[in-house]
Amino acid sequence: MNRDSNSYTIIYASVMVVLVAVVLAFTSQSLRSYQKTNEDNDKRQQILRSINVQATPGEAETKYNELIRDAYLVNEKGEKTEGDAFEADAAKSFAEHKYPVFIANINGQEKYIMAMQGSGLWGPLWGYIALDDDKNTVFGADFSHAGETPGLGAEISATDFSGKFSGKKIFREGEFKSIAIVKPGKSAIGQDYVDGISGGTITSQGVDRMIFDSLSAYVSFLTSKNQ
Fold first, then answer.
1. Of 12, 21, 112, 209, which alpha carbon lies 20 to 30 A from 153's?
2. Rounded to whole angstroms, how far apart are CA atoms 141 and 192?
3. CA distance 173 to 170
4. Segment 19-71, tens digit of pLDDT
5. How far apart are CA 188 and CA 184, in angstroms?
6. In this structure, are residues 186 and 173 in contact, taking their beta carbons and an 8 Å threshold?
7. Which residues share a beta bridge with 145?
8. Do the beta carbons of residue 225 and residue 134 sit within 8 Å?
9. Element (H, E) at 92
10. What are the extents of the domains in the chain?
């Protein structure tokens, strides 16, 4: 075949495209198990951070199995429903009215961990918040983001921010109030609050909405006497 012809160029390009696609598909499939392991350990680390436990990726599974004694999904009525809480994608499960709950045992006391999902300035926000066995007082929290601004909105992932939530209450006199995120120096009437991120107003507002919207879905579960 004439290597200078258009036919040769088209055939050569087509063969190379197919070969590259096959190699990429094979590589992706080969690495999928490692990717899944990394994704699972990252989720375990986030859940553990919500109960104030730090773990490396290599330690995450062991510590998770030691401390998380149960995990399940609940519906909007607070009742357990079918599905795997750990494998559930928060955005999808929330859309289906199925909400992940993780039960931790810390020094003989139960902590109730709930998933959160929302949106910030540049993309999705998500996290976990843990309550004491009174199902009201925050024990710990962890927040993550897809692409908030480094040094500004991205600071929601720092413990300096998440640590402010410990001891805050989401109910007042039996009524769900959530926890407000306010501008530094400001306050919120009628509910507990924490200072937002300086220079990250829109991200802070996103966290505020995420906490309210996400925990609203758990109110029936948190107020039920049967759990």
1. 112
2. 15
3. 10
4. 877 777 776 666 567 789 999 999 999 999 999 999 999 999 999 999 999 99
5. 11
6. no
7. 125
8. no
9. helix 90-95
10. 45-50+59-223
